[in-house]
Every structure is written in structure tokens, then in C-alpha cells.
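lol ok so funny story. i was supposed to be doing the assay writeup but got distracted and ended up predicting the structure for this chain instead. priorities right. anyway since i did it might as well share w the group, maybe its usefull for someone
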Amino acid sequence: MKFRSQEWFEGRDELGFQHRAALRTMGINADHYRGRPVIGIANSWSELNNCNICLRDVAAAVKRGILSAGALPLEFPTISLGEEFMKPTSMLYRNLMAMDVEETLRSNPLDGVVLLSNCDKTGPAQLMGAASANLPAIQVNGGPRVAGVWKGIEIGSGTDLWKYWDEYRVGKISVEDWNALEQCMSCGSGACNVMGTASTMSALAEGLGMMLPGSSTFPPGDPGRIRVAEESGRRIVALVERDLKPSDIMTEAAFDNAIRLLMALGGSTNAIIHLTAIAGRLGINLDLERFDRLSRTTPCLADLKPSGQHLIHALHGAGGVPAVMKEIESLLDTNCVTVTGTSVDENLRAVASSDSSVVRKLSNPFKAEGTIALLRGNLAPRGAILKTSAASQHLLKHEGRAVVFEGYAEMLERIDDPGLDVAADSVLVLKNCGPKAAPGMPEWGAIPIPRKLQAAGVKDMVRISDARMSGTSYGTVVLHACPEAADGGPLSVIQSGDLIQLDVSQRRLDVMLSADELSGRMARRSPHRSPHLRGYPRLYIDHVLQCDEGCDFDFLRPKNAEQLAFVPPVVGRS
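and the output, tada:
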């Protein structure tokens, strides 16, 4: 077969000469690779991203695999989205990284790509870019970091930080213990070791068929991680030779499998936005009703933090993602093809769980239904979501008076004020934290419990916002209220003292105002004004879609079959 890269290296005489000479300047003898595929390695390694710092070793193993399969590996850097350092949120730059990946693939002599990811947004961004470029692709992650131990307790990244921060705020933990806890949180490179967004999206890449089965849960430095990377290098060459593309693997049925896996794992709410965005690049519409419908019929089997008690290394020991998929096999479309070149059915034939205390049996689930509920009502006409598995059961049907914060800075300023007019049954409401407002929809939705209530023993309250929350967070937190306040959503006109009703069993979220009162407030509302007047943030604000459409850019999500077409570059003089 003729490979795409041959247009560069074996095309018109002077251009082939120029491009082969460019390889020779890097010490590569182009004659050795004539007629062989060229494989890109998209490496999101960066010293600004501690989660992805382990990817250099992964890249070296991938290269060995590609070379052993007779192809030419060419590694290239991409933007790296580090959840810890990037402000206001790495989510602001997910679409930019997706564009970086897509355009690098489009404009260069590459026949396929291995996507090296780990931290929360790097995996989704790569899959979005690869879906749009639609060249054969396989993803390899760096894995979850090992667990530190503090006072005999295994520490879960993020989840235990929020837990012990609340105790530190009210004086239940000493400064010395707080400093010791910081050392345990710094236990090595890799992604969060709970079922937060990073581990969720790596698991869902497996579920979609874009990652080798069982590969996502190996920790960094584990010999298995390196073996998987090398095998992925060999597999991408086979995918190129077969011309098996992301659109062949990430089908509508594969996304349904991924959604069911999300629910069975008790995964991050952020996955809803990311899966919607990835699917949208392929012309597949994942509406919120689909998530809710599949959630109602998929039990949660994985007893993992933040919904449960175990960390990712326990899931790995219990058989990893394949063990979970095996248990819900009857709910999956097992005909879907994967990067193995075979179907889900064939991949699962020899799989068995080794620890039913971590991955429960379908007949004895950890939670009877899936973990995420879609809410609708006059407060969120296009929907809001709640992670029911991480919420307090007594708050799933609740009525309370709103305590409203107009923005994140105001919330931080007022939340611990002893004079704050708040009670245990109040509903905390945070506005202007959605895609357009911050911008980027930061993970600000898990509003802290006011200090005076925390000190009195209050552990949870109903909280509502147009923000996201970390996949490592927990509580009765209503997220992604859509449309967001800054885009004219009803959340923008809620006032302190308004009565709010939450009824998860009925999937309702309402403010108890008459239609006339609500519409009158909406007519009088002032438009949101952003301080960002130029640059990428301005581009983002002007073109980002709302969260129910995945927060992608309107010009990157194809609207018809014609826009789905991959437009190749004209190979000529630069």
C-alpha cells in the first residue's frame, strides 16, 4: 500500500530530495525507510506538568516498538496541560492542545500517531485532535502515582487533600501534621491515584478501544508500563497498514460502552464534557439524556475513591479496566473493534476479576445505579449534573434557601465570615464560573462548607454552580448548570433567600419563583462583561460552546458530513 508520508519523501524529485535531506540532517538514513510508514509520537511531557513527567521513558519504549515493526518513529512535543499549575484552569487550553495535535498531524509526513498522555485534559485533547485528523492512532498514558502513607493511611491524591483541608481549617489537624501530609502527597510522578478525571479518562480511552486493554492502570516506572508502551509502538504500525482509523474505532456504540464504563467505575463528572467533545469531532451527538439513561441501567461496581475506599493500584491488582468491562459485558456492544484489531468480545474472553472487594460482581454492585444523574428544571433548562455516588443520601431530596455568591473571588472572601447568613439547610449558589465567564469553567463547584458550620459538625450541603469540580472531589454538588450565568442562564438571576428544590429521584432542580417573576428578572439582568479583550482567552469566550455540547469551539465541531472530511495539505515548497 502507498502511505501518506510518501507524498513527502517519494514525490516530485526536488521535494523528495529536500525532505529526505532533512531526515539526513537528523542522522536518519532515509534509504532505510523507503516505502515504510512514518509514525508520530505526540509527547505531552513537560516540567510544567508533574503528572506527565514520566512520559520520556514511555516515549523511548514506544520508539523501540515502532522500530521493531519496521517503521520510522518521529517524536514531537505538544502543549502539556498540567492540572496543578495552570490557572484559572487547564480546561481553558484543552481545545488549544487539540488544535495543536490536529494541525501537527495534518501538516506533517505522518501516517499514524501514538498519543502520550496522563494528566486530566491531555488525554481528551489528544483524542479530540486525533478524531479530527482521523489518521490511525493509539493512546498510551503514564499511569497513576504510587500512594503515600500518612499515619498508616494510604493517601488518595486530591480526595484526601480536600478531606484533611476541611479538618485543618477548623483546627482538627496541627501545622506539623499538615506539613507531614504534604510530604505524603508528593509521593512520585504520575496522575492522581483515585478515580479522578485523569484515571477516568485513561480508563475510558480503554473502553473506547483507543488504548491497549489493561494498560491504563500500570503505575509509572512499572516494567508493565514500559512493555505496554513498546507493544503500542508495534500496534500503531499494524493499524497504519490496516488503515484502521479513530472513526472506525470510536463509533456511537463505542461511546455507549465508554459511558457505561464511566458509571461502573464511579468516574469523574468531567468525563461527560470530554466524551461529548470527542464524539462531537466525529459527528456523533451525545446528549445528556443518553448519559442519564445509561446511568440508570448501569450499576457502579468499583469501590474506588472518591465514591468508595480503594485507590487505583487496587483496581490494577483486581484486573484493571478489563475486569470491570467483563462484569458489565452483558450491557456492552462487544462487536466494537479496538486498537488490538479485534473486537471487545475477543479482548474480554480470557478476562476475570481477582478481587471482588474492589470490583464487585454485577449481582452485588457497590451502587445499584450509575453514579451520575442529569437534572432539569427552571434553574438549569439545558441540564445540570450531580455525582450521586459521592453525595449524601439525605440531601438528594432537599429544599433550602439560597446563599448566593456572584463569583469565585467573592465566595472566597465571604465563605468563612462568621457573619455569613447561612444555616446547615441552606443551598450555596456560585455564579459566573462557566465556560465563558472565568473563562474555561474551572473546578470551583465544590464550594467549601462555611467554617462556622464545619466547626459545628456539618460535613455536606447542597451546592450549585455553573462550574466543574475535580474528579477527586465529593459531596452533594450540582454542577454544569446550563446555560451558564454569563451566557444568560437562569442561574444569573438567583438571589440570596430564594427557595431552591432538589429532587434527584425526579431529576429536578428548581427555584421556587413564578414564571412571571423569573422572566422579569431575566429581562432586567445585566450582560456579563469579561476583562479579556484579546488573545486566546478572547477567542475562547467568543467561540466556546456550552458544557452540554462539550465546551468545544463552534468552528471545530463539524455540523455536517462535508465538514467531517479531513483536508490534506498541498505538499509543495514551504
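The mean pLDDT is 94. The first strand starts at residue 38 and ends at 43.
back to the writeup now i swear
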